[in-house]
Give the backbone structure.
Amino acid sequence: MKHIQLLFFSLLLTLTTSAQQQNDLIIKNINVITMTNSEVLKKTSVLFSNGKIKAIADFSKLPKNKKTIILKGKGKFLMPGLAEMHSHLPVDSKIDTLLLENVAAGITRLRIMNTSTPLLALRSRLESSSATISPNLYYPYIVTRDLTYNAAQYDSLMISIKKNKFDFIKVFSIANEVVFDNLMQAANQHQVLVCGHYPAGIQIEKVLKSGYKSIEHLAGYNKISNTSELARTIELTKEKEVYNCPTLDWDIMSKNLQYPNEYKNRLVYDNAPKQYVNQWDTEYKADLLKQGIATVLLNQQKNQPIFEYKQKILKQLSNSNCLLLMGSDPSTFFQMNGFNLHQEMYNWSQAGIDNFSILKAATITPARFFNEEQLWGTIEVGKTADAIILEKNPLDDIKNITTVEMTIINGKAYLKKNLVKK
């Protein structure tokens, strides 16, 4: 039986940025990072069919037909697609560009943590458009301090949230402890995930015991100065299976910790279009002048020790096998959507986290967060066909995550270079 066989680079040249073939796809003789453990399956082949991983075996044992597309992956690496667990959406007119950028960077799952765009309308638009290229999105219902609901009102809200199929509640801010109690009681009763900013004014022990699913920015922990108290808090974090999404890069860029020249070494320079870099450079220099260099230096001196303490907290959480999520919170200069997750991975490496743990925080652990670990997060037979192909092994050097060449979402393949051009 004759089948279609294409060299790797030949296919890279011919695939378009649009969602294309639903033919079976085999990636032949590639090194597979399954993320079930830190071992690499060398020179094996993977069959994607109908949006699923159908088989992982020697090429000769895989079923083929005349329409099967075969990608030669010699020397390349295949691993699960990445999950960006802290992203803000811009205005609706710019959302499609953000989605493209994320897919180009190897992001196949994205947790939306804030936006002014009506999310139900956005979801409807994306679901009705087969031409839109997007990661799989997780939609929040956002709670702010203005929402001072009683228990009955929150109970009704949970029913509405489930009816409208929001994936979780993101707490931006909370009015007071009574409102927090009402929120968590109703959410736990209706099995609705609650996560987000640390609820100010509430003891961290109570937050960890409440059912709160994940905490952003290491808030709460960074206020603990006593070593023993921090150790007890981390132990309780592990016991209650509370996730943390540190977003170190937010601290680095918002506090100008890479001034005056270190920002030029950021990984985003490997992928960002020239016009992006030029615009950031202009805006960054204007912002520095507006603040005043003396003020920038004083703030840097003040915030550097705070950041270093966050690095230590992250390292302790990791050493204690706490649940960690990779999120980069891109929102300012030199932070390109999607690709900023690569920078956040490097930030974790600089904090002393090993490469396998870093990759777990962007793959299987986010799947577990959404109670979907049986569906995605590893390269295993039966799971969703979400994967990335890289030139180099990120287990050897986390910077190799920047060598993404192709992103596969639900079995559809997209080329990074074409998406970046678009």
Remarks:
- The radius of gyration is 22 Å.
- The mean pLDDT is 94.
- Residues 293-319 form the longest helix (27 residues).
